[in-house]
Amino acid sequence: MLQKVFKSVILSWLILMASCLFGVIPDSGQDHEIMLPLVMVPFAGGLSGFVSHLLDRSKSRLNLEPFSLKTIKVIVFVILVGIAFVFGLNSSV
């Protein structure tokens, strides 16, 4: 379980660092504007890894093909990390 969670967190960190490299996250804003995406995106990646673990555990009960299961995992990762990016970058606290 932890391996899937850490793999998703590392992947989301790599995406986040690539977006920092290209200037998506401002480096001259308020502290919360800089820190919020740095916290939310890896948390969403970890949550995605946990959902992936739950899907793998219930694979026999779902009767899904391996391709469908992989597609669901990718969609969950993209949606959760995408929501974290949108909320993290558009926060006006």
Descriptive notes:
With 93 residues, the protein is mainly alpha-helical. It has helices at residues 2-21, 31-57, 59-62, 66-89. The protein is built from four helices and no strands. Helix 1 (2-21) runs antiparallel to helix 2 and helix 2 (31-57) packs antiparallel against helix 4. The chain is elongated. The termini are far apart. The mean pLDDT is 84.
Give descriptors for this structure:
single chain, 93 residues, mainly alpha, 4 helices, 0% strand, elongated
Largest sheet: none
Q: How many strand units?
A: 0
- The mean pLDDT is 84
Helix content: over 70%
Task: Name the poorly predicted regions.
Answer: none
Give the radius of gyration. Answer: 15 Å
Element pattern in H and E: HHHH
3D shape: elongated
Structure classification: mainly alpha
**Number of H- or I-type helical stretches:** 4
Share of β-strand residues:
under 5%
The CA-CA distance between the termini, in Å, is 34 Å
